[in-house]
Every structure is written in structure tokens, then in C-alpha cells.
Amino acid sequence: MRVTKAIKKEQLRRLEETYKDEGTMLHYTSPFTLLVAVILSAQCTDKRVNIITARMFPRLDTPQKMVALSLSDMEKEIHDCGLYKNKAKNLLGMAHELLTKFNGEVPEDFDDLVSLPGVGRKTANVVRSVAFGYPAIAVDTHVFRVSNRLKLAIGDTPEKVEEELKKVIPMKNWSRAHHWLIWHGRRICHARNPKCQVCPLLNVCPSAMIKVSAWKP
Ligand code: SF4
Q1: Which of 8, 143, 149 to mutate to test the pocket of ligand 1 (most atoms within 8 A of CB)?
Q2: SS3 track for the chain
Q3: Does the model's pTM come out above 0.85?
Q4: pLDDT (tens digit, 9 = 90+) per residue, 14-39?
Q5: Is the CB of 161 under 6 A from ligand 1?
């Protein structure tokens, strides 16, 4: 199947129709708690992160409270999260830098955000988009895989996929589309066994495991 502009438009239309305004699964109450949750979510499911933050946030929902913890106490707080030792160090470093460089506030600027320990391009984009409402597309493992399978974006790095998606998706929909692709990856287009038989994009997907007649514009 050749994935034309019309097919990409139809793929996006169906994703929007299916996932509408579904947002992040992570629980948060402020830009700071969102930033903490997103840092914890690398190599860890959102469900697990929500269990950990439900335990932590009643006591540790500001950088001021967080920096009062020792490294070993922080490790204990998040011991059931993947890569917890590294994340504990990053969380304390991040909280410390917020206090020393940003008045205790999470910055909105992309370069300021990625200057914080534990904050990469994906995390910065999620925080800018979800906490501050900037149009952004964060490319995580689901967005990367689903975009590649649909040939909506064929880049071989998250940065290339982000750039391609920004060209094919209207800016007003960047943040919503990021969630459509995540939800599609979580619910249907799984890494190992994609559920093509129930996929609403079956006849517009060049990677479908089931052969059907391609959709015609
Ligand atoms: S048809 Fe299959 S491979 Fe294509 S998007 Fe749907 S689940 Fe993924």
C-alpha cells in the first residue's frame, strides 16, 4: 500500500474519531507533580507510576519538600519503579535546580526544561503540552512504533519522527494526536501482537497482518 497524503489524513481522522480527547493516564496536580510523574514513567508503566505517586505526592508535591529527602530516602520512595536509583538522583537534582535556578517553578521554555536532570526531549514536550498547553508532539515508544507502522512518519529516530509528524499533523492537533498515537499503541497496536483484526485503521495501514482491500479516497 502506498501511503499517500489522503491516506495519512484518513488515518488521522480515524485516530481522532477513536480516541477523541483522551489525555495522559498519569495523575498529577501541578506542573511539578506532572514533571515528577513523567520522569518516573521512563521504563515503567503509567499504572505503576500512579501507584508510586499516590503514595508520594501527599508528602512530596513541591521541590522544597523533595530536596529535604536524602538520596537513600528517595530511593526507598520509588524502589518499585524501573531504574529507581538513577531516577532518585535525577528527581533530587531536578528539584534542587528548580529551587536554585527557576524560583521553585517548572519552567515553560523547552531549553530550560531539558537543562534539568532527568529531562530529555520527550519529557520536556509532554510537560510543555500537558501542563502548559503548548502544541508539542512527544515521541515515546508507542508514538514511534505506531507512526512507523502506519507510515505516518518513517524516521528511524524519535527526533526524525517528531519532525515528520509535525509536518503531516496540523499544529492545532499536535498535542491531541500525540495522545491518539499513545492510546492506539497501548490498546490495539501492541509491540508484539498488534490486534489488527479489531483495528479501526486496518484498511489504511500498510503494516496490517490481515490482508484486506485498501481504502480508496
Ligand atoms: S492494522 Fe495492525 S499494525 Fe496497523 S495500526 Fe492497526 S494494529 Fe497496528
Answers
A1: 149
A2: CCCCHHHHHHHHHHHHHHHCCCCCCCCCCCHHHHHHHHHHCCCCCHHHHHHHHHHHCCCCCCHHHHHCCCHHHHHHHCCCCCCHHHHHHHHHHHHHHHHHHCCCCCCCCHHHHHCCCCCCHHHHHHHHHHHHCCCCCCCCHHHHHHHHHHCCCCCCCHHHHHHHHHHHCCHHHHHHHHHHHHHHHHHCCCCCCCCHHHCCCHHHCCCCCCCCCCCCC
A3: yes
A4: 999 999 999 999 999 999 999 999 99
A5: no
